């Protein structure tokens, strides 16, 4: 059972990372690049080799809208 669980976990992790090794110890810069890749290609691990960004890239933003803390 432990072997099956280990293989299943590894399979799911590989599917989520598109066959690439998992990213660990991410900082804000890497998270913002992952968000940019998500907006450009539709996946967090995808990258694009196109010279120009799609038209929708101009209007969407990676800045999140947070509610103010009312303390």
TrEMBL record:
- Keywords per UniProt: Electron transport, Membrane, Mitochondrion, Mitochondrion inner membrane, Respiratory chain, Transmembrane, Transmembrane helix, Transport
Q: Give the organism, scientific name.
A: Smittium megazygosporum
A Pfam cross-reference name = MWFE
CC per GO annotation = mitochondrial inner membrane
Superkingdom is Eukaryota
Per the record, the major location class is: mitochondrion
Q: Does the keyword Mitochondrion apply?
A: yes
Protein's UniProt keywords contain Mitochondrion: yes
Tell me the protein's name.
NADH dehydrogenase [ubiquinone] 1 alpha subcomplex subunit 1
Q: What does this protein do?
A: Accessory subunit of the mitochondrial membrane respiratory chain NADH dehydrogenase (Complex I), that is believed not to be involved in catalysis. Complex I functions in the transfer of electrons from NADH to the respiratory chain. The immediate electron acceptor for the enzyme is believed to be ubiquinone.
Against InterPro entries, the record matches this protein to: NADH_Ub_cplx-1_asu_su-1
Topology with regard to the membrane?
Single-pass membrane protein
Give the family from UniProt: Belongs to the complex I NDUFA1 subunit family.
**Compartment list:** Mitochondrion inner membrane
């Amino acid at each position: 059972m432990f072997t099956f669980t280990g293989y299943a976990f590894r399979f799911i992790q590989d599917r989520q990372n598109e066959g690439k090794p998992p990213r660990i110890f991410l900082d804000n810069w890497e998270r913002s690049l992952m968000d940019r890749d998500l907006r450009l290609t539709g996946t967090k691990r995808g990258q694009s080799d196109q010279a120009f960004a799609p038209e929708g890239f101009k209007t969407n933003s990676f800045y999140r809208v947070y509610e103010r803390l009312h303390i």
